[in-house]
Amino acid sequence: MDQTNDTVVFEFVLVGLSGSWKTTIFLISTFSLLYLSIILGNLFIVFLVITDSHLQSPMYFLLANLSLIDVGLSSTTVPKMISDLLKEHRVISFHSCMTQACFIHIMGGGEMVLLIAMAFDRYTAICKPLHYLRIMSPKICILFVLTSWVTGVVHALAQFSFVINLPFCGPNKVDSFCCDFPRIVQLACADGDKFELVVAANSGFMSMGAFFLLLLSYALLLFL
After folding, report:
1. d(CA 65, CA 145)
2. Beta-strand (E) ranges in 7-156?
3. Which of 139, 68, 134, 116 is nearest to 215 (CA)?
4. Which one, of 43, 114, 51, lies nearest residue 74 by Cα?
């Protein structure tokens, strides 16, 4: 992840949660409690799915993997955000910023695929109950999980390979509490509108595709 020769920015300043000391204390307390709840809640779901024999079904297997992704996505952004609230200078290195943005899109892309897989599982269970166990076999469930990770990685690398080649020569202030490719593109020393459109189209295509597939699955459940 080496910067190009035109890049002279080696760190970014995160200014998304600047405020008074009272506001900072409130945000630290709130986000700490929320993060703890997210981690404990999702890990408890994973623990129950693993240990409870009554939950050994495709739906709960997919739910456990979705919970793991939620843990990863939260851990990618929230701990850094809380630690930054305790600092006067909230900076993140160029490499760390790129890494954080990549993980956000890997987890986000994988989560969308798992939601589609869970919708397909419900469609199969309701509309084709006699063939449910044959269709939603363990191999298919594992294939869904692998597909979610591969999709997330491809989605993230597609944006990363585009953003990493942009020149960054200043400013370096990101108007957010975390690094994300659309925010970073705005700081590039180039025609920002064109680059923002490419990044937004990439994420938008995946988000809208997942939305319409989910909508289709629930429409089939209602009308079949």
Report:
1. 7
2. 11-14, 91-93
3. 116
4. 43
Dump strand ranges (E) for 15-170.
Answer: 91-93
- The CATH code belonging to domain 11-223 is 1.20.1070.10
**β-pair type (173-174, 91-93):** unpaired
pLDDT above 90 for 128: no
Q: Specify the amino acid at residue 105.
A: H
| pLDDT at position 219 | 81
Tell me the pLDDT tens digit for each residue of 69-122. 999 999 998 898 888 888 777 788 888 888 998 999 899 889 999 999 998 998
Element (H, E) at 173: strand 173-174
Outline where 174-191 has alpha helix (H).
Answer: 181-185
Number of helices (H), then strands (E), belonging to the chain: the values are 7, 3
Each residue's pLDDT tens digit, 175-196: 777 888 878 888 877 765 666 6
Contact between residue 193 and residue 15 where contact means Cβ atoms under 8 Å apart: no
Residue whose C-alpha is closest to residue 114's, from 88, 133, 142:
142
Tell me phi and psi for residue 129, to 5 degrees.
Answer: -65, -35
